[in-house]
Structure formats: C-alpha cells, structure tokens
Amino acid sequence: MRPMRPLAVGLASAWLVLGTPAQAQVEGRPLDPCPAARDVRPPDLYGLWHFSLWPSGGNEDAAVSRGAMLLEAHPEYPDSVRGQLKRSTRTDEVKAQVSGDVTDGGFNLDESDDGVAMSAVWTGDISPSDCRLDIRGTRRAAEGRSGGDPDWNFRLIKAPARR
Q1: pLDDT tens string for the chain (163 positions)?
Q2: E strand spans, the chain
Q3: What are the sequence ranges of the domains in the chain?
Q4: Does the domain made of 37-158 have the CATH classification 2.40.128.120?
Q5: Measured in whole angstroms, how far is the alpha carbon of residue 81 from the centre of its chain?
Q6: Nearest to 124, CA basis, from 150, 93, 157
Q7: Neighbours of 125 (CB within 10 A)
Q8: CA–centroid distance for 135 within its chain
Q9: Are the C-beta atoms of 68 and 52 separated by less than 8 Å?
C-alpha cells in the first residue's frame, strides 16, 4: 500500500506544475487578455452561465426566477450559439432551448419552450468585469405570445471555466 502524502505537499506540487500568472509572462507565454465588449465573439460565450430575472423597475435582489444556461457552438451557424436553459420560478421549473449571437457588444438570444416557436427574446449588452463576462438586458415575450411571462430584466454571469 502506498503511503499518503500530506495535503500541503500535494498542493505545493500542483502549484509548481500549474505555475502562476507571473511565471507564465516571464516564460514568454502571454496571458489571454480580457476581451473588450465589442471584441466578444461566439466562442467567448461557450460554457455555463447563471442568471436572474426580475420585473422592470425592480432590482436583481428581488429576482422572480433564477437559473442556468449552457451555450455551445451552433451546429448550423458558425457565428451563433445554441444551448439550453433551466430556471426555477415560484411555482415550477422551466426548461427551454436557446440560440443567438453577439455583435459589437450586443447580445441577442431567442428562447423556445417547445423547440419550434419562439417564446421569448433576450437583448442585452456585454460588460466584461474582471475578465468575467456579464450581460445585462431585457427578456421579453416573443411577438404574438399571449399569456406568457411579462417583460423582465436579466443578468447573465459566466461561470468560471474549470481547469
């Protein structure tokens, strides 16, 4: 049986293998700069996002729904993203398909609860914050949808990437 190494030794070994940002610069491997909002491209959107929805005139602390969204490359449109969202409301859980794009710092996303017709449209602005993407805007019921959700403000925050 192999003896266990102390936790501190294991962490120190991992730190030496991964290095630090300062070491990466010294060794000639430049760090990826944080993109400006106008430079964000669809691949920057790939991954897991957390979001909150709240009524117009309210604030994020009074969210009526929270959830997560997973965005990936759109298989048919290379300059777009596609994915799924799952969110909770006060009474149930909602699942939907989404697809959209980003252009010059503007974010547009179509939501479909049945995979066929649009149920909502998300429009917002990207604002990178500490190299973490943050998108704020409005989620509106799709044109012609009656009895749907009201207009809500939203905030999408990209989850940190796993290493």
Answers
A1: 434 334 333 333 332 233 333 333 334 434 456 778 888 999 999 999 999 999 988 899 989 999 999 999 999 998 999 999 999 988 889 999 999 999 988 999 999 999 999 999 999 999 877 677 899 999 999 987 766 678 999 999 999 876 5
A2: 47-55, 65-73, 81-88, 93-103, 106-112, 120-126, 134-141, 152-158
A3: 37-158
A4: yes
A5: 11
A6: 157
A7: 13
A8: 8
A9: no
